[in-house]
Design a protein that fits this description.
It is a single chain. By secondary structure, this protein is α/β, with parallel strands linked by helices. It has 6 helices and 5 strands. The chain has a single domain, classed as 3-Layer(aba) Sandwich (Rossmann fold), CATH 3.40.50.360. It has a 5-stranded parallel β-sheet with strand order 2-1-3-4-5, sandwiched between helices. The termini are close together. InterPro entries: Flavoprotein-like_sf (IPR029039), FMN_Rdtase-like_dom (IPR005025), ISF_SsuE-like (IPR051796).
Amino acid sequence: MSKNILVIRTSLRNNSNSDLLADSFIKGAESAGNHVEDITLKEKTIAFCKGCLACQKTKQCVIHDDAVKIADQMCSADVIVFATPIYYYEMSGQMKTILDRANSLFARDYAFREIYLLTTAAEDEAYVPEKAVSGLNGWIDCFEKAALAGTVFAGGVGGAGDIANHPMLQKAYEMGMNV
């Protein structure tokens, strides 16, 4: 059965390694017959959450910027895939901000059940993405119908495009095929 997959790219860098990892996932997911909607936070206007919690009553954020549409796209997706570079052993600030701004989803009838995380970093030790995974799990814990379904980490890729020929590109492709 075909799934509606939303890929959210959080890197602001052109030719970013996390974007190239996302490309592999998307190719796999599309080759398996899924519908993929692909968005990037690059050039989007996304303000910080005010913590007012009005969204819990209105099911919409009071800040009218690009995050409102992205939250709507998240709400209707069966699967959400986040692609982020690891900065200081954590997800990008852009990713954290969009997670905070998706607070309105808590009060809504969201469709997503599977969440995936694709990460890249200059460092290549296995522990590098642990805090990003933990941070995303903290968000997922608020959505009892959803779960972290998989992660891919490509380390040792500091410069733009360094991920070319990295073995994790194939793993991301296979993960996309098996969504």
